[in-house]
Amino acid sequence: MVQKPIYVTQPSLPPLEEFIPFLEEIWHNKTLTNCGPFHQQFEKALAEYLGVKYVCLFANATLALVTALQALRITGEVITTPYSFVATAHSLKWNSIQPVFVDIDPDTCNLDPAKIESAITPQTTAILPVHVYGNPCDVDAIERIAENYNLKVIYDAAHAFGCKYRGESLCSFGDLSIISFHATKVFNTFEGGAIICQDAKTKAHIDHLKNFGFVDETTVVAAGINGKMSEFSAALGLLQLQYIDKYICKRQQIAQTYSTELAHVKGIDCINFPPEHQSNYSYFPILVKPDFNLSRDELYDLLKKNGINGRRYFYPLISDFPMYRGLPSANKYNLLSAQEISEQVICLPIYADLELASVRYIVKLIRDISI
Ligand SMILES: *Cc1c(COP(=O)(O)O)cnc(C)c1O
Known about the structure:
The structure is a single chain. The strands form 5 sheets. The protein has a 7-stranded mixed sheet with strand order 2-10-9-6-5-3-4, sandwiched between helices. A 3-stranded antiparallel sheet has the order 8-7-14, with no helix packed on it. The chain has helices at residues 16-29, 37-50, 61-71, 87-93, 139-149, 200-209, 231-241, 244-262, 296-305, 336-342, 356-370, and strands spanning 6-7, 54-58, 77-80, 98-101, 124-128, 152-156, 164-165, 168-169, 176-180, 193-197, 214-216, 219-220, 268-270, 277-278, 284-288, 308-309, 345-348. The protein folds into 2 domains: 16-241, 3-Layer(aba) Sandwich (Aspartate Aminotransferase, domain 2), CATH 3.40.640; 244-370, Aspartate Aminotransferase, domain 1. It has 11 helices and 17 strands. A hairpin with a 2-residue loop joins strand 7 and strand 8. The mean pLDDT is 97. Pyridoxal-5'-phosphate is lined by residues 60-62, 84-85, 87-88, 130, 156, 158-159, 180, 182, 193.
């Protein structure tokens, strides 16, 4: 079967003609940025859609992570996961904070709460877990530890747009949560991100920090950054909100097809989500186990040869990159589960416009090898 290459994701976009009126309004107002009308509308609409208290929009999630750490005045050491996108640890580095890597729970791919306490030192000020693939962290256990040791919790919820846990937005846990609207994510504004916070005072502080520290024309209260989302992205976000449920619904069909058809393939495991969880189907990770007929990288290459570009999210581990591998916590014996999952994972293509026929073709490629 010859076909166009398929990538792990393809951004979802609304009909172009529906975006034109938004652009006309921007051209007419001549307000391009600095928290203009679309920015304000999008913040409100998002808070409502997600069911969260306060939203602070950002140009991207990395700036939002860096700013979130500043907003809570985090210093010293922060406990985090090696099994994530590099931006998670980079946000600590940009604040001169030392990441302390703790191993993951291999069933969820998230930070293992049972291993957090032994990594806490007098320098520890916060925990920065990631809801990997939108799969909820053990938020109760993490909250208990944070309370006992007086630590802040900042969730990297970059994957968790629209996810719900026990009926609540997954972004409403912790002191702050950060979402990404990058082109590769479930919900995109080309580039974009947000901090979710729980009170108006924190929102005001974050809003100052993302605008150079300006409070008014002549008052600067902190060495802030330029993290503002432009009117273009905010307008697109408003329009995307009208379509997001449709996008997620189509992803759900794809995820179900993969789950059903891969269920009995020897040596291929799917990652299970807890039943109280409503997913956004942002990724479809599989684990290539030792009893599969090919190694993970052999399967990855074979899929690629057949036009199917999976991604090894997350390989290598963050703790294996040169700027982190010298840390004591980056030692691979400290991170055995993360190492193992990282060497077995392939995220299969999943996006709203992916045809079910393509999903079946991908499944067939994998199945044929297992026989
Ligand atoms: C995508 C991603 C980020 C960074 O988001 P940007 O909006 O691209 O800056 C951070 N953390 C995780 C886990 C991500 O997947």
